[in-house]
Amino acid sequence: MEYKYAVAKISDIDNLLEKEDRQTMYHLLNVINNRRELEGKTLNSYIVINTDEPYAHDVVDILKQNGHWGSGKNELLKVVGINKLVKAAHENAVSKGWWDEDRSFGEIIALIHSEASEALEDYRNGRAINDMWLEPEDETMMYAKPCGIPSELADIVIRVFDACGRYGIDLERAITKKMAYNATRPQKHGGKVI
């Protein structure tokens, strides 16, 4: 991943670095600022937010709308982190009562499968793959329910996140390892038709 900015908390610099490293760090920051000044540039000034703040998505949306959010390389998922999304999905499911009684792993897998079946049904009913629409569940709902194949695929991921949160699975690590392994596999490995 290519970085455009490097951010370090002053308290981390002061508390986590040895004295010599701390002095080197502050020296390098001063060198950068002095050289920017020689080039006629102003002192760097930034607004920094922690990606686990509940409004981080909103800030990224504003950055995207104004052309300040990369060229597709930096997605919010990478910034927020998969395991933070796992935690949020599981906490939401718990708060809505879905874990008041424990469920079997088989039931969880069946629920994930049911979301895939709903996506397939939308496709079989002639819905376009990217088609999304809103549907009010009933008059008491403040928001309309997102529907369509993209929504069903999101439900699959959310259910996987919830399961990983329930069982303490480090999904981010598992995905990283699996993708690294998949990159080493031969073309169309396994010889299967689909």
Can you put this structure into words, describing what you see?
The protein is elongated and about 65 Å long. A two-stranded antiparallel sheet has the order 1-2. By secondary structure, the protein is mostly helical. α5 crosses α7 and α6 runs antiparallel to α7. The protein has a domain of 102 residues: Helix Hairpins (Orthogonal Bundle), CATH 1.10.287. It contains eight helices and two strands; from the N terminus they run ααααααββαα. One of its GO terms (molecular function) is hydrolase activity.
Q: Give me the CATH architecture of the domain at 81-182, please.
A: Orthogonal Bundle
Shape: elongated
Report the sheet-strand fraction: under 5%
The protein's oligomeric status is single chain
Count of discrete alpha- or pi-helical segments spanning 4 or more residues: 8
Number of strands: 2
Examine the coordinates and then state which fold CATH places here, giving the name of the CATH topology of the domain at 81-182: Helix Hairpins
Structural class: mainly alpha
Strand arrangement, major sheet: 1-2
Low-confidence stretches: none
Mean pLDDT, rounded to whole units? 84
Helix amount: 55-70%
Distance between the terminal alpha carbons, to the nearest Å? Answer: 32 Å
Largest sheet: 2 strands, antiparallel
CATH class placement of the domain at 81-182: Mainly Alpha
Order of helices and strands: HHHHHHEEHH
What Rg do the Cα atoms give? 23 Å
